[in-house]
Amino acid sequence: MNIIFYHPSFNFNADKWIQGIQTRLPEAKVRHWVHGDDAPADYALVWLPPYEMLANRQNIKGIFALGAGVDAVLKQESENPGMLPAGVPLIRLEDTGMARQMQEYAVNAVLYYFRRMDEYKQFQEQRIWKPVAPYNREKFVIGVLGAGVLGRGVIEKLREFDFKVRCWSRTPKQIDNVESFYGEGQLSDFLSECKVLINLLPNTPETQGILNFSLFSQLKSGSYVINMARGAQLVERDLLTAIDEGCVAGATLDVFVKEPLSNLHPFWTHPRINITPHIAAITIPEEAMDVICENIRRIENGESPTGLVDMARGY
Fold first, then answer.
1. CA pair distance 154, 224, nearest whole angstrom
2. What are the pLDDT digits (tens) for 15-40?
3. What Gene3D superfamilies would the database entry show (predicted)?
């Protein structure tokens, strides 16, 4: 079994990954892919691969994207058709420790707003001693956009705090402990009672720009927005307008249209916006390698891998 590996970043510890995969699959030969390498390969582990790495490998059994999102790889394919050989499975990392990190990030942001810490922070800056009543838990409805592995994990953890949680996804899902589930054509109904909106949607052409003024205006007045998915899904100017007009009381953002954020970007100094540098969930190498190797064994045994990407839907 031959496995090729490629990641463009010099800061990415590729040697650790190659050694880790080799240890888990001792029968495999794992190598760095370099330009001109057209030797046989059964599997590829990639992030932003060059066109020539995969285009002519019709006999490869699986391509593993080294991340939960595959939008970057699919964008490459749309710009350079044929980069991904037709019919070859594309497989993403579904969890590998990211669900737990997303739970931590979401709970931290939700409790920050529920306990009105954003207001106390402003009081502190103005040296105002002013207790305020906490929000009514029954009316503090949390809406989660996205019902994938990460979305379901966040919902599960928020329910442990007895919050009312509703979910929206384009395709129907069965999710325990959700107050209400909304599907395609029901977005307005979903938004109407949300005091907090958490975005965990996959990045597809349909979801780009979905967090816009029209959406914000359908939330409860003075709501909160938490974006943990992709920066391209947020229309940044619309968020600033929504805050100015009172539709949105505050936002916590981990992802942005352009990263790193420009030094001149208004988000840096906005009193109602909290930002973090795309750290809501990072890939944990040991857990990711376990999942990848288990999926390779599944394919070798004629079974379906987990995390198989639907190319038509883009996730």
1. 16
2. 999 999 999 999 999 999 999 999 99
3. NAD(P)-binding Rossmann-like Domain (3.40.50.720)
* Cα-based distances in Å from 237 to 69, 228, 242, 267: 25, 18, 9, 10
Active site residues: 230, 278
Q: What angle do CA 4, 8, 13 make, to 5 degrees?
A: 75
Per CATH, which fold does 98-275 belong to?
Answer: Rossmann fold (3.40.50)
Alpha-carbon span 152 to 145, nearest angstrom? 10
> Which amino acid appears at position 83 of this protein?
M
Are the C-beta atoms of 104 and 155 separated by less than 8 Å?
Answer: no
Residues of the chain with pLDDT under 50: none
- To the question of domain 2-96+283-301 being in CATH 3.40.50.720, the answer is yes
Indicate the DSSP class of residue 305. P
Residues 167 and 178: their CA atoms lie apart, in Å, by: 7
Asked whether the beta carbons of 199 and 233 are under 8 A apart, the reply is yes
Q: Which one-letter DSSP state was computed for residue 110?
A: H
Q: What residue has token string 């009672």?
A: 193
Q: Indicate the helix (H) or strand (E) that contains 79.
A: helix 71-79
Extents of the domains making up the chain: 2-96+283-301, 98-275
